[in-house]
Structure formats: structure tokens, C-alpha cells
Amino acid sequence: MYVYDTSLAITGTVQRPTAISFDKGIQRTRLLDSLVMSRLHQLHQRPELLLYTSADGQRPSCSQLFGRTTVLNSLSDLWNAVIKEPRTAACFAQIVDESPLGHNEVARSALELSLLKVKPFDLASFEHLLEVQEHVYPVKFFDQLMIDPLQRFIALDAQRRRPRESQAIRDNQKKPLLLLEGCIHPISSLEVANKSFIPAQLRGRDCYLGDFRKGLQGIADLFRQWDQWLGERGKHAASFQAIYIYAQIKGLLPACWEELRARGVAADQLRLPQWASYANALSSYWEFLLSPHPSAALLYIPMNGRCHFSERVNSQ
Amino acid sequence: MNFEQHDNLLLADWVFEGSILSASADKEIAALEQLILQSQELASRGLVQAVLWIQKVNCSDFDRAWLDELGSKLLRDEVRWRLARLYRIRKAIQESTIPWFYLSEKSCLGVMAELAFACHRRFVFDTETWFGFPEMAAGQLPALGWLAQQLQRKPKLLDAWQQQNTWKAEEAVQFGLIDAALSWKDWRLVLLPWAQRQVEAWEFESKGRPRNVVKLPQIQKLWADRSGSLLARDHIHSYTARVNRQREAQAGLDLELIDSAARFMCLAPYELWLRRAIDRKHVLPGRLQLELVFFDISESTVPISIVSRLLDGGYRICFFAEKAESLRLHLEQTLGQIETRYHRQALQLFDKQLSWYVGASPRQPLFPTLRFGIFRDIRFQHREVEIRGWALGAQSMERQVAEISEHNADLAFHLAPFFEAIYSVKAPSPTIPLLYLTRSLALQLLVRFCQTTGESMASLLEQLRNLDWKLLGSERHWQKFLSYRIGLQTLSQIAIPEAIGRFDLDRDCLHLKDWKSVLELSAHKTSGAYRKGPGWLHNYISSLAIDLSYELFRLNWVSSLEEADMYVADALAFPSAWGSPLLYARRMGQRRRFYDPDTAEVAFFS
After folding, report:
1. B564/B545 Cα distance (integer angstroms)
2. For chain A, which residues make up each domain, given as ranges?
3. Which residue from A205, B335, B385, B455 has the least number of CB within 10 angstroms?
């Protein structure tokens, strides 16, 4: 059971470049290195801890610069690392290029289809939401971070260097990436570290629902509990600038959207995980932590029904 | 050294930091002998299955106490006796009936390394550590017989050892010195279960292997003379006893090896080498102050000699630039140079040391950050420290030195990892480096030489290049210098820089804007007594350099004449084969003053 109320200062960036697909190992490590180094250079205090997630589980070579390195497999790992044991500072880096459970996975799509049969939702309004989401996340196409055909990770303008080859790469293997890097400073050492960081109030708690694999019931209950939790501090759904929703079962999103619409939430207030099929829970949580909005909320709905609410308010 | 038993394991912590050869290690060695004895006793009763020897501190012979002892009071027999004692320990470890596991996250060099290598399994939990025998560089064969034993089996190993005598943990694994090296910070937490697995693996592997069986009485016989070791402190009293005892134990000892090693250690060259190693603070190659440096390559690349020096020293390097395009350009150039410079195996190891990113330079970076400008100006930042200066010499030169202003003299140590020498000189104005005046003067001289001898500038430059004046002989360098001078003059409104000394040279030269006008000016023939030819040219420039050094010293812009000499040599890229201008003149015993044709040859010391 996670219930927390803490102050953190978080700085970081979320980038959405397009890169040709990774082969294996070394390029990912290079990219993780690059993400960590760019953050490390700008800090004022040396972080002790490196948190990273990586699809292949290989640790970045720069991890030796840190006192401890932790690979994050789930949200609980993150809370254990950051909230339960506060440290001077922790660096974080993540590359999302493949989902842990992609939409191509047969078992998952079968599950979703069967769930949709149990209770059909109003998909028309959901389509509208998805359209809005494309505008909410402007995907920038950088050519900065790429890997050339010789397996080297380099920064280049591929189109200009090898026109024919790079065109082929662009057509076939172009792949959107989500790069997240950041640094967490606990509030205690904040004054010492740097005054430009804005401390944020982070609150969260768990909420148990029934297992979603047995049926789609429970979304209404979830939102009722959420309302209650927000109501304790005199808040409501519409008071957040951004609401991040991560639902492991995509079929639940239309129901969530219906509930939120009923609470007066506009479509551009909502943030669905970027590239719904590619995202995973951690990246969604980090996007929430790094979000530029002064107040944001997160709803985390996993398959097993152990949901989590979180809200972040910048106290300025 | 303390040891204790945990279940079937005997854990021993090594916390002695000095040299194991010094007198202060006596107690530690006694404890080690005690450990060996006890482990054999327990093993013979089946109570212990393995010994874990955990090295908790860096071990090497670079110890001032050992050096002092060596320089003042140590006798050769004493060294001999200590080595023999360690030799027996090494042998006992190697022939132990139960396996010894050596665990460490620190470096281990010198005599201690041989004890570590004698263990049956060696594990290192930090890859930023070094192992081996640095004394082999001075000509000493490790004395405890482990390496000698290896060489008996494979004599060709000696070549490899002579080429490289200290190995980084990962290299050591490839070379077979260490079983596994990994960076694992939390290994102590799971030490016991991990060790159990190792013991099981050892048992499994050694099923078919014949075991060392040493019976207890034999051990007791081997270590019977332990009490005598206390006497060894007093050389004279124990002398006879030692001789007798050695005669007994002779069968197990390679006396010749120990003897030669002891003799070597008492020689002056070894002492000198040790002193130098300690004075250079070259305590351990792995112990570095800054492990990560950043290079801003937005404007220009980093000289390859600096990059390779840092890589060899085990630094991590991160390149960055504001624009992806300039990062790509400069990075490809640098990586290409690294690839041609190193062997493939070395390149694989560098893979972890190099990284890069695209981004802006932070205002107060956490790690040292160096930036080279287009005109070889440098800017160093580390937290609130900021140093600006100029790199002397060319980008491609192996010797990289820099000039910083006098106010920053205290901060010069920040630049020490990057450059071979740093001159803190007093320049006439903060915006104009002394380097700029020196080069202007050299250009004036070249123009004057052309005017009086009637030679063309092109042939003059060729002569200079042939004489190994690479920088002064490069047309590109002068073009770049002129463009820099124009930029400087427009920036700070300096019309004509003041000449440094009272050298009678053409001041028109200081107005020139481009290389074309330099060529035009040098084509005007004037009367003069300059003699043609490369030899004369070399002498004239060297002589200018010497006068310049005297002038700099007189003006008190540098602290000593030698420093002035070195500075001018670096600023003009004096041919390295000749040393420096002063050295050259002293060797020749004369010099030719270029501005005083009547006394073309003046005795130098007159």
C-alpha cells in the first residue's frame, strides 16, 4: 500500500525524436549514457543514485559514476527508491522504443476484444479524444540522435550524408522514440542545492478494485473513490491542468473518458500515454512528474485492479 | 589483519595500507601466517572449506615509510629475510588444501599483487582498479616466485609482461590474472551466500583434480620458526639464527630469485624509481581526482594527444556541442584519430569511456569542462572556476601547452590533466596574450629576412619546414594568425601593439591585414647584411628567441629565465630535437645576432 505526501523538486526533459530502429545493446547504452551525461553536466550537486529503465536490462556504462544504480521494473521500484529512501539526488533516464506488452501481442488483443464484448462503450467520442491527443503532443522530428548503418550511435543529419541509404532507412525503419531524463531533488537539500528548482508537492495513494480480467466493472467505482480522495482537499477533476491516464487495458480508456467528460474535463486536459501501444507505466508516470503544468494528476489502472492515484502541485 | 570464521568460511580482512615489505607490516604478516596455520588446522578437521581474503584498501609498494626505511637503515639481509618469509606465505597459499578466494574492490600492485594472484580464485568488484607489478618497469622481477613459476611454464609470457606491467581490472581478466571483474557496489551485502556458491562451484570443478594434501605435522614443521621472526627486527642479533633457519628451509625456496630481488631493492636505482613514483603522487594509477571530463567541441576539435592522454589515464570523456552537425563533424574526426592510434582491443575498452550529447554548455558545470576556440583559445569551467587562456602550438602537435594570465596562476592545477605545461605569464594587457606579441615578432623577423636576403617568402617557409620549424613554416598558421590579429584589433581598438624588446624590426608589419600583403611587403628588397641559407635562418630565429627570453625575464613577465626560455620555445614551436633556444646556444657556444650585422658571431657567454 502506497500512501505518500512528499515534497520533491524535479527537473528534466521529455523528448520525442525519431530514430532508425535500434539493433541491440550498445546503441541503447550509448543513448542512455548520452541522456544521463547531458543531465549530469548541468547539476550543482552530484547525485548518488541512478535510476534507469531499459528494455534489454543492460546497465548504462556511466552507471559507475554513481554510488548506486537501480533498474526500475515497475512503479513500486520507483517509489521504493525515491520516496521510501530519500537521498541527496537521483538521476533518471529512460528510453521507450518498444512496449513491454505491445498491441501486436496476440493474447492481449484477444483479451481486449473479449472485454469489449462484455460492455461496449461509446467509441465515437473516444475517437474524438484520440484526435485531440495528436495535437496535445506535438511530435518533433529531430535528426540529432541517430545510429548509422555501421552500428555507431552518432548525431547526424542522415538525409544529407547518405541520401539514398538514409531515405531507405526513413521509409522502413523509422521509429518514434520517447526519451526521458531528469533529476529528483528532495526538498531537504533543496535550499542548499539550487534555488531555481521549484519544489512540488507530490501526493498519492493506492485503490483496490476487482481484477479487470474478470470483467470491466469497477471504473465507476474507481472514479467515485478518486472524487472522494480529491474532495478531502477540496479539489475536483476539472481543477487540474493535465490529467495523465495509464490503463494497461486499452479497452478501459473509453470508459474513463466517459467518466471524465461527465466531470467536466476537456479533451485537451487529458494526456493519454504517448503512442498508446508503446508506452508503459513508468514512462507515463515520469511524463506526469516532468509535466510543465503547475498541477497535474495521474490515474494508473493496471490489469490486476490495484490502481493508483497521484497528484502533483507546484507550490509557487 | 583480522580474520574470523563464518560457518565453513574463514573471512580475512586486509586493512594494511602501506607496503608489505616495510617493517610496519611485520605484525600483519604474522597475522597472515597465523591465518594460514589456522586455516590448515581447521581444514584438516573438515571445519572450513574456503578462505575469503578481502582486500579493503589499496595495496602497493609506493609507501613513504618503506622508502625511508630503504634509504636509511635497511640492510640487504633484512629485505632478503622478509622476502623469504613472504615467499613461504605465497607458497602456502598456493598449495593450500582448501581454496583461497581473493576479493577486492581496490587496486593491488607490487609484492602484494603476487600474493593475490597466488589465490585460487580472484574476483574484483570495481573495474576502475589496477593490478600488476609496476617495479618491472624499473627492471625488477617480482620476488615471490609466482611470476617466476608462470615464466618457467611459458617463457614467452615475459614479453607480454615487459610490454605492460600494470593492468586495469578488465584487461587483467582478459590476460587471465583475475577470474572476474565487475562493478558491483552491493557485493558485501550478499557476500556469504555468494561465497557459498563459489565454494560449490569450486568443489564441482575440482572433482577430478588431485588435491593438495598437506598433513598437519608438515605444516607445523614449516611454520615452526615463527617465533624467530620477531628477532628479525634486530638484524645483528638474529643474523646467525636466520642463516641456520634458511639452511633448513632451503628446499622450498628459490633463494637465487629472492637474493637477486633483495639485492635489487637495495640498489640506488630502485630507490630512485620508488622515490619518483611517490613524489609524482603516482600512488596508484586508478586513484584519480576527476573521473569525468567534458569537452565542448562546438567550435573546434580537441587535440588528439590530450584525448589519448586522458583515455590512457582512465578518464571518462564526454563530448558535447550545441549543434548536432558540429558535434558529428568534430566527433567523427576525433574518433577516426583514436581508431588509427589504438589497437582494436584497446578501442573496445574505450567504448565505456567515451560518450557524447547534443546540448548547450551549462553556466557552472558540475564536472570540468574544456572548450577550444577557433584560434586555439581555451576556456575551462568547473563549478564556479572559469579560466581563459590560449593553447600554444598547433592542434596536431603531440606536446600541448597553454598560456593563462597571471591572475589565474593559483588555478593552474585545474588544467594539469589536460596540458603538459601551463605558463602563467603577465601579459601587457588582459585581452592580448603574450603569445600574440611573440608571434608578431616572429613574423616581423621573417619579413625582414626576406627583405635583406631577397628570398621569397614561399622558399623561406619551405626552409623552415625542412628545419622542423613546423609552426612558423606553415602558411595556414600565418593566415589564421593574421585573421585572429585583425579580430583582436577591431575588438579592443589596438592599433599597433608595442614591441616587446628593442628589436630593430619593421613596424609596418604590425599593420598588415592579410597574407597577400605580407608577401608583398617581404618582396621589397632592402640593404642588409643577412646571410642566406637555412643554417643562418635557424640561428637568427634562435637568437631572437634567446633575446626575447632575456627581455621577458627583465620585464618580470615570467618568474625565471628558464621558464621564459621554455615559454618562447613552446610559443615558437622550437624544433624539439634541439631542446630549447638557450640549450641550443649553450651547446653551440655561440649565437648570431640578427639585428647587429657587424657582430654576426658573438660568443654566447661574453
Report:
1. 10
2. 9-99+140-193, 106-136+200-314
3. B385
Q: Is residue B391 part of a domain?
A: yes
Domain boundary among B425, B454, B471: B425
| Separation in Å, CA of A61 to nearest CA in chain B | 6
Residue B303 Cα, gap to closest chain A Cα (Å): 20
Single residue among B364, B398, B425 that ends a domain in this structure: B425
Number of domains in chain B: 3
Same domain (yes/no): B420, B442: no
Nearest to A33 among B183, B355, B366 (CB): B355
Structural domain harbouring B416: 294-425
Give chain A's length. Answer: 316
Task: Give the pLDDT of residue A138.
Answer: 61
Q: How many CB contacts within 8 angstroms connect chain A with chain B?
A: 73
| Least CB–CB distance from A37: residue in B183, B186, B318 | B318
| pLDDT score, position A312 | 92
Question: Given this model, what pLDDT does residue B29 score?
Answer: 92
pLDDT over threshold 60, residue B491? no
Confidence of residue B601 (pLDDT cuts 50, 70, 90): very low
DSSP A274: S
By the CB < 8 Å criterion, does A196 face chain B?
no
A174 touches chain B (CB under 8 A): no
Around A253, how many Cα atoms within 13 Å sit in the side-chain half-sphere?
A: 25
The mean per-residue pLDDT over the stretch B25-29 comes to 91
> In this structure, are B274 and B299 located in the same domain?
no
Asked if A42 and B366 come within 8 Å (Cβ–Cβ), the reply is yes
Does residue B454 sit in the same domain as residue B378? no
Q: Is the dihedral of CA B268, B271, B275, B276 positive or negative?
A: positive
8 Å CB contact between A297 and A287:
no
Least confident of A154-168, A250-264, B74-88, B92-106: A154-168
- CATH node for A106-136+200-314: 3.40.47.10
pLDDT surpasses 80 at A297:
yes
Question: What residues contact residue B19 under an 8 Å CB cut-off, 6+ apart?
Answer: B25, B60, B61, B62, B63, B65, B66, B110, B111
- Please tell me what DSSP assigns to residue B59: B
With beta carbons under 8 A apart, name residues in chain A contacting B357: 34-35, 37-38
Q: What are the C-alpha distances in Å from A53 to residues A38, A75, A274, B269?
A: 17, 11, 17, 54
* Residue range A6-20, pLDDT digits in tens: 888 888 888 776 665
A46 near B CB under 8 A: yes
B266 and B377 in a single domain? The answer is no
Q: Do residue B355 and residue B481 come from a single domain?
A: no
Flag whether residue A159 sits within 8 Å of chain B, measured between CB atoms: no
**Yes or no, beta carbons of B332 and A154 under 8 Å apart:** yes
- Do B438 and B450 form a contact (C-beta atoms < 8 A)? no
- The band of B590, judged by pLDDT with boundaries at 50, 70 and 90, is low
> Is the same domain home to B314 and B415?
yes
Residue B529's pLDDT is 64
CATH of region A9-99+140-193: 3.40.47
Judged by a CB distance cut-off of 8 A, whether residue B296 touches chain A is: no
**How do residues A227-258 score in pLDDT, each as one tens digit?**
999 999 999 999 999 999 988 887 788 888 88
C-alpha A208/C-alpha B602 separation (Å) is 99
Regarding whether B467 and B376 lie in a shared domain, the answer is no
**Residue range B112-152, pLDDT digits in tens:** 999 999 999 999 998 888 899 988 877 788 889 888 888 77
Amino acid at B271: E
Write the pLDDT tens digit of every residue in B314-346.
789 999 988 877 887 888 888 889 989 888 877
Mean pLDDT of chain A: 76
DSSP readout, B220-256?
Answer: HHHTGGGGGGGGGGSHHHHHHHHHHHHHHHGGG--HH
Residue B42: inside a domain: yes
CA distance B329 to chain A (A): 9
In chain B, residues with a C-beta closer than 8 Å to the C-beta of A30 are 355
Chain A residues touching residue B292 (CB < 8 angstroms) = 40, 65
Task: Give the per-residue pLDDT at B593.
Answer: 61
CATH at B16: 3.90.226.10
Residues B134 and B116 in one domain: yes
